[in-house]
Design brief:
Layout (H helix, E strand, L loop, with lengths): L18 H15 L7 E2 L2 H8 L3 H13 L3 E4 L3 E4 L4 H5 L20 H9 L23 H13 L15 H14 L9 E4 L2 H12 L5 E6 L3 H9 L3 E8 L2 E2 L1 H7 L5 E4 L13 H14 L2 E5 L15 H4 L5 E6 L11 E4 L5 H12 L4 H12 L2 H27 L4 E3 L7 E6 L5 H10 L5 E2 L12 E5 L5 H17 L6
Parallel strand pairs: 5-6, 5-8, 8-9, 9-10
Antiparallel strand pairs: 1-3, 2-3, 4-11, 6-7, 10-11, 12-13, 13-15, 14-15
Length: 495
Amino acid sequence: MRKSGAAAFPELLTGNGIIKDQVYHALREAILSGRLHAGSKVPSGRALAEMMGISRNSVIAGFERLQDEGYLITRRGAGTFVADNLPDHAISGPVSSPADTAGEQVTANISPLTEELRSQRIVSGAPSDALFMVGTGCVDLFPHDVWGRLLGRVWRQSRYALHAHSEPHGYPPLRRAICHYVRATRGLQCDEDQILIVNGTQQAINLTVQTLLQPGDEVWLDDPGYDGARGAFLSQRLIVRPVRTDEEGMDVYDGLRRWPDAKLVFTAPSHQFPSGGTLSLARRSALLSWAAKHHVWILEDDYNGEFRYADRPLQALQGLDRHQRVIYAGTFSKMLYPAFRLGFLVVPKALIPAFEVTKYYADTGCGYLEQATLARFINEGHYARHVRRVRKACYERRQAVTDAINHYLPALLDIVPSDSGIHLLCRMKNGVPAQTVIQAGRQCAMGMQPLSRYCRPDAQQEGVLFGFAAYPAEKLTDGIRRLADMLRAQGVVTV
């Protein structure tokens, strides 16, 4: 607190606010204005505290900040002085007036590819937490307290771990935990050396492309399919070949007939996005045989393989691969929360060194605290319990949306059957455009997406995707009712 009485250093009188901040700003202003010139000695902390009528600790705190930023220097045995070369002078240059720049246009040499990617990217047009937003898991069920305790424990034990860079292939205990988990639950054939920790599925795709492909190579992509993968492929100047999908997932035979020269196949065999089909055993066998014979790589996106309600999760395609042609990508963002940017790749043994060096030059390594906490979360059984809880909740929420659509909008929407995933795909009926439903939803602050977003530009399909995992059943039911009311008010549907 400020001491009573007038200060004996009037040019450095401080105003209102936190005292240490006032000291900093007052001294800095005196230095920049020349009242304290370069090389001049500053009174000691004790003397200045007495002059300004404030506590010595406040002066010391202000001094330390000025020293950190380069305004003051301390000479052992001599005291504290104003620096000869001030940081403001070093970083400042001539400032142009508006008149100097009138008529000028700022130009940049931007790759034409950037404009192509901008044209491909579709903005949802709704806030990320909007009702029916696609791609968000059960964020309301995330065990914050458990995670907080584990994070606190990791933090208390992290003194030495934080001194070193993370390993590019990931935190060893986490890789070990993931290896045990996916072998037991997804039927993968791997060991922990094959696990590579990444910052989500998007980085997994980019690393795979950078490691294995060259510009001009052909890539299979489901149509409709994941738009993030399409963008990643285009950014690496690959040729994207659309392969049609049906209730059995990617039509492998269509791809073999039309695009036999592809170097990579991107597919989600457990739950095709966004249509929801499951790749049949016959197609899995055909794809693996062709890939082995022609030395083609398969990138298996298992983004939500754990969200299966009717039966036990299907064995991953990687578990059936006997020729080391499958790269498996998994993520924790759907099961935990969207901002949790950790996933993993399972790569064939022969590719481990190549992927590790690509990962190193991408970002050196993923964050230690998140990796260490997740390792404990898995090893102590919390993750498996969370999966069971989420699976039960998603089944109930999916059923609520299904019942509500069949009750309020049966003449407008036809639900595509699926026993897994965290969204529903509805086909349009009676020639009503999907955009009509999307626009009505936006007026109700809803975030459902058109199926056309995930199709190639010349093959738009009429349908709407409803995300349901992040919301309780009663809110989902009420949302469909409000959407029906809006469409009824617009004359789109009748009572």
